[in-house]
Structures
1.
Amino acid sequence: MDLSPVSWAEGAWTTPPAAVAEDGTDLLVTCVEGSDAWRTTSYGFIHDTEHALVAPLPSDSAMEVVFTADYAEQFDQAGIFVVAAQDRWIKAGVEFADGHPQLGAVVTGPVSDWSVARADDLAGRRVRVRVSRAGDAITVRAAVDGGPLQLVRVAPFPADAEAAAGPLACAPTRAGLTVRFHGWWRGPADGSLH
């Protein structure tokens, strides 16, 4: 795949984290307690305090992030965020829920829809998450970094929307979560769905 690195400095925060530091080429993001992205469904609340470092994601392009899924408190999460509007976004990655790492995605437009699958093999590992934008869809894939990417979700996304995407970290239930991101890349959209 023909990917180019995206500089951490190229992104803009949707909500600034508690702290940000660079360690070599890695980015360390420390979350604010209560940070999250969710709209209405089942819980009845709207949270739009996610820490997402985003840069433009035009049509027919893709982005990837790699992070270490080294967290174990309820709803700790990291991955990638795609946003077109306050009520039109997707987050995908690894969220710790109900005692286990869960690989999944939340698709919002205008209310949230959450799909997850238990993924104990990702605990403490480097994880790569990829979003590919083509036509009227975002395709989400993920894997242990270095392994073959597996399909996580295909979700509707407006073809004509201006969108941005990049690394995401949230800590809905606690202070002190720091997520280590190892890289951020962009390139062409996937050639096919399968």
2.
Amino acid sequence: MTLAHDVAGSGTTVILLHSTVCDRRMWDPQVPALVDAGYRVVRCDLRGFGETPMPDRPYDNAQDVTDLMDLLGVQQAALVAASGGGQVALEIAARWPQRVTALVLLAAAWAGHEPSADLRAFGEREDALIEAGDIAGATELNVHTWLGPHADEATREKTRQMQRHAFDVQLAAVEEVEPINGEADLAAITAPSLLISGRHDLADFRWIAAQLSDQLADARHLELAWAGHLPSLERPDALNPVLIDFLHEAHTAR
């Protein structure tokens, strides 16, 4: 199955991988800026998000993305990924390091991370709301938890719509199917990497960014004082220049 996707612009390819709170629409504020900066931008919906349906068998998100690259004739690309999409990007960069030219991870999840009490409490509360049939309540919990103080009401509503749609698609599945998550061998990742965290996010994601920046071969960590978990939505005016400057720097150095 081909992931739902769209392509804009021309030049070096940048692939955008969404948070599992959202879908590919979360990158609406980044696409025009990246195209104007001279990039070909590919964004896709992972399985069970946006316009990509749930699968009926175990699936491999990293393989899905590289299959899409093959379909589009993309041999190499920079990966820009948020939260759960960041975990997918790490796996791609570890399994196919020659295909990744640069890596930008925004509040990335990491398979090797042991959740804090706060993150476990969030998961337990979300599960309880879903079990009780309160999908609206579970949606609001996500909007409240994952957006920082600079997100305006339009951004909160857009995030609300994306999260509610994901719940509707995933809960309508006949049976629950889990992704196949491979362990990312961080030592195999060669791409220059920027790890971005937000001071208003849960501590887990600040810790992950710091750990990854220490363990990856060519990486640095940037903490944004204004940001929560989804800085690309919260303040694209502040995030986009950081993103574009890093991509230009990484590709100029090659």
